[in-house]
Amino acid sequence: MLLMTFLASMGVAIALPIQYNAIYHSPAAVHAPIAVPVAVSNSYPRYAFNYGVKDPHTGDIKSQQEERDGDVVKGSYSLVEPDGSTRTVSYLADDHNGFNAVVHKTGYAVHPVHTQTAPIHYASAIGVSPYGIH
Fold first, then answer.
1. What is the pLDDT of residues 91-119, one digit of tens each?
2. pTM of the full predicted structure?
3. Which three-class secondary structure state does DSSP give residue 6?
């Protein structure tokens, strides 16, 4: 379906073969679309999009935004790293400068503190141990 939408936006006509369904007496489209080229226009490329995910259960927190105007693409994305800091990448791409990205880190890395405890030793009276009376 996405391919059909893309081709239609490019000015390509989509022809779907029709298969007659004898049981229900209604036409049903065959699953494979056939693209028939029609006069394709070279339209000026322009788009903008953004999305984000914030899942506190898994800790998956990220977002992205991007826009294109002709041959210039710019945008950014950010994500929360496993250490708790946030990485943000801003980028710009064009014919003259190529692809350039700048990375920023905000927040502090938080690493879990592991404490080591001494093993527990049981003092026992004569004939008594933690496992019972001997």
1. 999 999 999 999 999 998 887 777 777 77
2. 0.52
3. helix
DSSP symbols for 35-97: EE------PPPEEEEEEEEEETTTTEEEEEEEEEETTEEEEEEEEE-TTS-EEEEEEEEETTT
Do residues 76 and 88 make contact, with C-beta atoms less than 8 angstroms apart?
yes
At residue 38, the pLDDT reads 53
b/e burial code for range 46-63 (CB count within 10 A of at least 16 → b): eeeeeeeeeeeeeeeeee
Cα-trace Rg, the chain: 31
Residue 46, token pair as written in the block: 């322009």
